[in-house]
Amino acid sequence: MSSTTTDTPGTGGSSGADENVPAGEKATRATLKYVDDHFGSAGFLKRSMDKVFPDHWSFMLGEIALYSFVILLLTGVYLTLFFHASQHEVIYNGSYAPLRGVPMTDAYASTLHISFDVRGGLLMRQIHHWAALIFTTSIVVHMFRVFFTGAFRKPRTINWHIGVILMILAILEGFAGYSLPDDLLSGTGLRIAYSVAESIPVVGTYVCYFLFGGNYPGQDIIPRLFIIHVLLVPGILLALIGAHMMILWHQKHTDFPGPGKTENNVIGSKFYPTFFLKTNGFLFMVFGVIAALGAFATINPVWLYGPYSPGQVSAGSQPDWYILFLEGSLRMMPNWETHIFHHTISWNILIPGVIIPGLMFNLMALYPNIEAWATKDKGYHNLLDRPRDVPVRTALGVMSLTFYMILVIGGANDILATTFHWSLQAVTWVLRVLLIVAPPIAFKLTKRFCLGLQHHDEALLHHGVETGIIRRLPHGEYIEIEAELPPEKAEVLAKQIGYVGHSNGHAAITAGTNGHGSNGHATNGNGSGPKGGRLKRPVGLAETARARMEHFLTEEREPVPDAHAADHADEETPVH
Amino acid sequence: MENVSTSALTPDTGHRSGRRRFAHAGIVLLVIGLFGFLYAAFAPSHSAATSSDPAIEQGRQLYLQGCSSCHGLNGEGGVTAPSLIGVGAAAADFQMSAGFMPLRNHTAEAERHEPAYDDTEIEQISAYIGSLGPGPAIPTNLDYQSAPLAFGGQLFRTNCAQCHNFAGSGGALTYGKSAPSLSSASPKEIYEAMLTGPENMPVFGDQQITPAQKLAIVNYVRTIKTSPNPGGAGLGRIGPVSETAVAWLVGIGVCVVITMWIGSKV
Ligand code: HEM
Q: Global pTM?
């Protein structure tokens, strides 16, 4: 176990180490010397290689996205060698007999060619597509890790914003790629995208004409999507991923509270060799998983879908999963339309196709800013929150996830209906009700669950572990023996709960922990401290809203049964 | 499978051994005789179905036992079942060889079963129902293998895929109805389904889809149903939803387990 500590502001912590160095370290130095002899840049490299990364498993989720992106680039380049981004009509003459002689676009014919007549083509297509699914999924999983641990707080808010843009771009990129083969399924998807764009009042029709170069489907959309898919979006993605990683590198990774961990240090493995080997091993495992999927599981069998034709549609036409939430919101929406001045406003498309996703992505992007604004949290946070310690934020996250998942399931309502022999209408109605009812329930349950876990932690710390040994006292009463936690464990737990060691103060919405850091009051207003008194004066609407929001985010904090209780009395009645 | 039918009126569904089939035939003949007697005694004299063709007559007897309780003594229909006059021999043949009829229980739709009758019996009953009124006959030319395959695919995507899905895997219709998977339908049944439009399926008459086109469709369906998936496991051929499930459970699932494993090592 090679744990290392670096000081956050500092240079490599162990630069002056002695000469009895382990083999790994020797290798590092040899490499450094070689590079330095050629570039004279060893100072920078040395600092980088000694960079310390914390070890928690959830910090590797983002790497899944990184490595699947690498796979996308590699396989995508291969596909580009053979793909024809053209909607000119050709007659298929390749080796897939059930389509021989059928008129189709060059794009579709070349995809068939890749699948059946290019060596390794089908495997590449399948790896590319599976990697796309893993890429987009891992982005979402990674994002939820960042959300639930509060890693998006200052100073990492900009990286959160970059992350949201990356996610949106990944979705766009996936949709563009999915549409390229010009098969019946993706053509149906494009047709829906066209209608969604068309539903935007006033400008909709113009937007569509601009994007598609005329009426649907036209001749322009596939070549345009191709440039978007292989050049434009990958270029931006690459640049933003670079920025994302450089900011991470510069700011250093966050970590959970624990022994020896403070706001000003990082404890973990050095980048080289430990983290480097670890992450490279992981790279090959991710490659392996995706390659195995590509080899053993069919994805997007375009030859079965057939070429796109406006007069055809298949039952159960679904998009890839990252668009499924939109499909679901479209499928669940009642059929509302308004007619004014010879114009039709298609609420049935506008709301689920434009307004709902617009709100979702904007709220997601702005959440860190909203939280910081509401709680007046201006502090730096290098230590993470445990999800249970921020019950409202965690509950908001689970609530959003619930809402999102119901939309996703809604996109597969017909598959649910046939698989379980339910009525399609019943499924749709149940999902409509759930979409409104389930998120608040998820919120309440999660919050309770977090508070329960907090109680459990407190009990462990203050009463120790239940041993299961029952003893009868002389006067007849039965008691259970409780063993104190071993001191190391107690220390870890105390750190995690936040009793000690947060020199910068914890997030204001960290239930029960605020104000226990040595100068928590100064950084986190939270109703106490110098700013608390202002609430008594007549305040503007914005401030009232802010205070309301703060109350919502921080209410039901667990009172902490210890000497600091006095602080809390202060906070609840701000008499200044 | 030891499956003893308790009443001669309920056709046996199990795989019948030769000996038991004889026994059944005996009972059936006995009951037919009885029915014939009763029928001759009580049937209204203007009954339509008196035929010279012995096959049709046999079919009528079988019909009276197995079907008339729902479809009426002369195929005129009943409270629960539609009239069979004019549905044609093809409809009867389809319904019985796919095992939909005789209907067992009233679910949202009839389900495919082992046929309750053997081929000769099905032929006879179908001939009888065909004799009730003009309707589509059982197709005789089923030489589908030489029909144009790709053309069949185009016809299939235009006429059938919106209900049965792009690969004939089935799909949902409204209110608990669904279009079934076409995996177990025989070439003749596919042809007859188009000809007669069972339940919620439209009829594709010979004006809309010519017999040659029907054979092309049959060829396409049978070809994709019997061809393997070149890309590995087919995942049900229902499109991106099953792919999503695999990406989440297998793809991301395994990757996350790996992160935990690595996390526990370092
Ligand atoms: C960054 C993330 C990327 C995502 C999410 C993505 C996603 C997709 C998807 C879902 C498809 C449909 C493939 C199919 O099933 O046939 C596709 C096709 C394609 N992609 Fe990508 N892709 C990405 C990057 C790239 C890159 C960087 C390139 C090239 C430099 C590329 C080149 C292609 C080509 C040529 C096709 C069409 C070929 C075919 O469908 O067989 N992709 N992409």
A: 0.83
